[in-house]
């Protein structure tokens, strides 16, 4: 299913970012993304989530909506940092295929928890989308790669064009198509071609149960099939940025990277009146805005981690990022069983009541519970990082 790579644990804890085998800024970005995912899905009370940790109801975005795109950006960055390399296309294909199937399989297994009810199994999901975007991005990167002898090199110019094609193509799809019975350009929950395709391919019983319309009918899934194409643009943008920055970027490169990220954020917002920012549909404007914020975070993390104090402060984030997929899986297991009845309560409600007795304010108590889950997951992952063990699919 996966592989375990081992490096000296000191390389994560004390080595300088420019010389460490692992790219600390990349680990930190992944760690922040996983931490964000946990905070979003682990409140003590679903009725007391801070607005920034709750997804936008439809159009627009919150901090919670930027978490998953940041992880996809990190996926692309990790792919780019593996170039140049001397693997054959066949070796790449086997590696990509194994990782893709592992991600999708694990995602389906997590969706089966806690009851293992196949009749209502949600087929799309976060890990499934990561797997689909990964295989699409890898295919594009390999197809466009330049070869020098037996060595493959990233083709950044080609990737810029491919990214533009994905984003423009999605604009055209959303503008000129719709679900049957809806006007062209509909961006309602049930009205997009993407929502219709998911209903036909997966059937309503196997979609996200909260993807409803105003009448309460399940009509879409935020991790559906067609929207994986614009989400792949986030992966490619991460690859482009990471390849350009390299493993030890200069201060000038990082400043230019921050400026480029800010430009993407501005472009996405300028497009918003024409092509709305919407995470659930993963509109092109959302892909651009979210990639911009991820690029800014990635560059800023290099600056922060150059300092020993920064590495010390961000150590929990680095722990999560070093084994990001494993940490995410642990958090999803906790989520799956958080509502399981135990006597007249549940683990989630019990934790909320304990937190409420400590802080009094229900909003603060709910957030405290979420950070409690972050702490538990971090402590469970920490022994692996101490031993220099990094689990990869």
UniProtKB/TrEMBL annotation:
Q: Name one molecular function that GO assigns to this entry.
A: acyltransferase activity
Locate the transmembrane regions by residue number: 28-46, 66-84, 96-114, 126-146, 158-179, 225-244, 256-275, 281-305, 317-337, 363-384
Q: Name one Pfam family in it.
A: HGSNAT_cat
Key words of the record: Acyltransferase, Membrane, Transferase, Transmembrane, Transmembrane helix
Keyword set includes rRNA processing: no
Q: Where is the signal peptide?
A: none
| Key word Transferase present | yes
Q: What InterPro entries is this protein classified in?
A: HGSNAT_cat
Q: Which residues form the Heparan-alpha-glucosaminide N-acetyltransferase catalytic domain?
A: 22-255
Q: Which domain of life is it from?
A: Bacteria
Which PANTHER family does the entry mention? Answer: LD22376P
Q: What is this protein called?
A: Predicted acyltransferase
| Species annotation | Microbulbifer yueqingensis
